[in-house]
């Protein structure tokens, strides 16, 4: 989308907003935490849109603070933040966010700024931010309108939620289960890009509001079904167990129906590239990588592929058979397994494997530097991979990654 179609801000408004950048850097997370508190108190129905575990972990307020900070920093050149807008817009489209919800967000964001900053939030600052928020919201609304239109016009495409039947449920490991989904209406299925995700609408007993969650598609498109592979998130002393993942594992079975939105996401395989492909996953981060691998083999693409998967041990390694079959069947595919605490049985079975962790010297010994790298997994794992690739001087245009949940920062 071109920013030329957006309303223009006057110089005084731009100057006032940019002057608040140091304040946002210092108080941004406090402001966004307060924003969510105030908005949910007034509009509890919006809790069905947000992952409340991410709220408790502080990830959502932190991600929003970073987005607000970036918007203030580049308010005079919104083209600089359009890639971030488009990334978030994919998520919004998948959750069926509508233009009418933006004024609600704006109202409570301004109230939170005033609440946290007190007298320092002068009328001039609040008025400037109100104008700036209007322009930023319009950018999201325009991008999302294009995405809704494109989704609706696809063969088999739909907007909103469509009922899907669970036609198969397969336990892949001690913690990951796959759900095979087909539309109840028997209509066509739109294709998707390997790496994209579905949003499911979980309607759980004794819950006041529905819960929305995104799960990566874990198979190649064009097979007549969608497959998601879901990790059951266990609770800790600080956080409750994953509400939706446990609901799916324990209560959703073959024959049950789940409302689903159309595939979305801006993390996907560049199928036009001819460079060697390196897929690196940790834990359940293998799901989008498996979609990429299965697409390569299904389409018989003559492209060198190295798939590296890291897990605690074999008991939690899902889709292992899929990796082994690809490794044994296709000469252009090489898979590697890395277990940090392998069992005795694992040691007998492991081929092209490593005990411990994915480190740079080992990575350099098995894959070419001039590759396209895609990786996904826990944040600490992703930071380690990112640092290794940067240390190896891999160009940024060859580095691709996906966060499960709010966008984080791999530089920190």
Automatic annotation (TrEMBL):
FAD-binding FR-type domain residues: 159-270
Q: Name one GO biological process term.
A: cellular response to nitrosative stress
This enzyme catalyses: 2 nitric oxide + NADH + 2 O2 = 2 nitrate + NAD(+) + H(+); 2 nitric oxide + NADPH + 2 O2 = 2 nitrate + NADP(+) + H(+)
Keyword list, A-Z: Detoxification, Dioxygenase, FAD, Flavoprotein, Heme, Iron, Metal-binding, NAD, NADP, Oxidoreductase, Oxygen transport, Transport
GO MF terms here are: FAD binding; heme binding; metal ion binding; nitric oxide dioxygenase NAD(P)H activity; oxygen binding; oxygen carrier activity
Organism domain of life: Bacteria
Q: Where does heme b bind?
A: 92
- SUPFAM superfamilies the UniProt entry points to: Ferredoxin reductase-like, C-terminal NADP-linked domain, Globin-like, Riboflavin synthase domain-like
Q: Where is this region: Reductase?
A: 156-412
Q: What is this protein called?
A: Flavohemoprotein
Organism of origin is Thalassobacillus cyri
Taxonomy-wise, where does this protein's organism fall, top ranks first?
A: Bacteria, Bacillati, Bacillota, Bacilli, Bacillales
